[in-house]
């Protein structure tokens, strides 16, 4: 097989066979320059040189789940728990709005206290105060009815990484109460309801193989998400995966390019995790085909507590100064941050 021919075909048809994805993954070192070139071409066609920003608000680190890789997993007794109040969340959104954010991403663990009533109230309050802004939720698995209520309250988008589409792999990352089938059903329900939906994976998670990644790419191709979160796995010291190595920035960037080619108009973030394992990782993600950055708007006091993995990048984008610096960095690589909702084009 010739990686150039495969990438050319992917650019045109947006689809490859499983074994072809596998070949690209296994030859990503040679293929990455060419994939990046094609991915940048594709993203420019849809989004020119613009980069969307999303204000990330980490609303709670309480979680009922025990995902083996995650620092805020239920059984981590070393984690100091917090939960933002409605007023604190609204205040984050106000600060963000003044800075130019037009999408707010409310992310948190699966916290019982954020039941439908509480969360719908928060969503509708944000939408009432900022009717022209988009609200994205990232609060895990919920019932169809719950998702529907959140949608009706005004939520526009939902992020729920599938983590891996391989059942055996999923089992090695999660306790047995958590089911891949449920995760996928959630993603399908979200789509049915009308959300713009994001799935995604960690790159280099324990027991991941080229085969499981190839299947993830095929899943992304068939599911056709509006957004896709792809970031390196980074070990957390209080988890059983503490001695596993971090995922590779090279492979992460290569996969960003491939996903861009699978769905040229996809909203593709250059993740905080990528920026955390490599200086200028986020810029590199943009140069590989990503078109979204999600700076943190969470209050200074709780930010370090939302520790999914160690050495998480702490940018100061809640301040005008921090955002100016980000803008400068993005401009220095030939791109431009824009102020709008940043919907799929
Ligand atoms: N390293 C990288 N990403 C992680 N996530 C959770 N734990 C880690 C980790 N140790 C990611 C998961 C989850 C998202 C919110 O954060 O993919 O879906």
How would you describe what is shown here?
By secondary structure, the protein is α/β, with parallel strands linked by helices. It has a single domain (3-7, 16-338), classed as Aldolase class I (TIM Barrel, Alpha-Beta Barrel), CATH 3.20.20. The chain contains 14 helices and nine strands. Strands 2-3-4-5-6-7 form a six-stranded parallel beta sheet. A three-stranded parallel beta sheet has the order 8-1-9. Strand 4, helix 6 and strand 5 (157-159) form a beta-alpha-beta unit. Helix 1 packs parallel to helix 3 and helix 6 (144-152) runs parallel beside helix 8. It starts with a helix and ends in a 7-residue tail after the last strand. The structure holds 5'-deoxyadenosine. Residues 69-70, 161, 163, 202, 231, 233-234, 236, 273, 308-309 line the site of 5'-deoxyadenosine. 5'-deoxyadenosine binds at residues 69-70, 161, 163, 202, 231, 233-234, 236, 273, 308-309.
Descriptive key words:
alpha/beta; TIM Barrel; binds 5'-deoxyadenosine; 14 helices; 12% strand; three-stranded parallel beta sheet; 345 residues; six-stranded parallel beta sheet
């Amino acid at each position: 097989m010739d990686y150039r021919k495969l990438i050319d075909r992917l650019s045109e048809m947006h689809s490859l066979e499983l074994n072809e994805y596998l070949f690209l993954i296994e030859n990503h070192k040679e293929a990455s320059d060419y994939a990046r070139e094609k991915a940048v071409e594709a993203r420019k066609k849809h989004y020119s040189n613009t980069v969307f920003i999303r204000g990330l608000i980490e609303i709670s680190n309480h979680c009922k789940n025990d995902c083996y890789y995650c620092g805020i997993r239920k059984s981590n007794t070393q984690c100091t728990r917090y939960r933002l109040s409605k007023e604190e969340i609204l205040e984050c959104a106000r600060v963000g709005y003044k800075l130019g954010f037009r999408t707010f991403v409310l992310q948190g663990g699966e916290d019982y206290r954020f039941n439908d009533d509480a969360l719908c109230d928060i969503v509708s309050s944000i939408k009432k105060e900022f009717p022209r802004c988009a609200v994205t939720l990232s609060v895990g698995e919920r019932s169809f009815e719950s998702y529907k209520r959140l949608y009706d309250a005004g939520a526009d988008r939902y992020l729920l990484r599938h983590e891996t589409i391989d059942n055996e792999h999923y089992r090695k990352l999660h306790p047995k109460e958590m089911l891949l089938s449920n995760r996928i059903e959630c993603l399908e329900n979200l789509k049915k309801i009308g959300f713009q939906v994001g799935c995604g994976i960690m790159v280099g998670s324990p027991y991941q193989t080229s085969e499981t990644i190839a299947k993830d790419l095929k899943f992304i191709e068939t599911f056709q998400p509006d957004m896709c979160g792809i970031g390196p796995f980074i070990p957390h010291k209080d988890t059983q995966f503490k001695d596993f190595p971090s995922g590779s920035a090279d492979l992460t960037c290569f996969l960003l390019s491939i996903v861009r080619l699978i769905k040229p108009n996809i909203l593709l973030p250059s993740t905080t995790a990528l920026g955390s394992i490599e200086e200028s990782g986020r810029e590199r993600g943009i140069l590989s085909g990503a078109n979204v950055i999600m700076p943190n708007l969470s209050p200074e006091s709780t930010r370090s507590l939302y520790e999914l993995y160690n050495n998480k990048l702490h940018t100061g984008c809640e301040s005008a100064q921090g955002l100016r610096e980000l803008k400068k960095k993005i401009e220095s690589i030939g791109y431009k941050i824009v102020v709008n909702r940043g919907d799929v084009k």
